[in-house]
Amino acid sequence: MVRVKPFVMGIVSGSAAGALYVLFSTPSSGQEFRSNAVSKSKELNSLLRRSGQDGKQFKDQVTETSKDTLSLIRHLSEDISSSVEGWKQTIAPHQKEIQKYLEQIEENLADLEEKAKQHRTSGNEETPRN
């Protein structure tokens, strides 16, 4: 989850430090400095309010998007589960038939192997070895 508070605090402290640097590094008279300081503090205060509002809007958007995503994932999960269940029900009767066919094939293979062994043993008796 995005941490908004540290981000906003970074913007605020960076803005304040920048504003103070500009105020103190500019050569001006005391009167100009005070009026400049008041003006800059009002601008900074306005910036802070806008940043707070923007941060709240961002947080609300992230929260809403998270809720929508969770809802979408739940629906998708339910759809997949119902599809799998439907597939299982469709396949279930055919599984028994396939199992029967596999058992028949295994029996036929066993019979063929037995006949092949008999043929080999009977073939060995008829042909003399050198």
UniProtKB/TrEMBL annotation:
Q: Which domain of life is it from?
A: Bacteria
Biased composition annotated in UniProt, kind: Basic and acidic residues: 112-130
UniProt region (Disordered), positions on chain = 110-130
- Protein name, per record: Gas vesicle protein
From what organism does this protein derive? Salimicrobium album
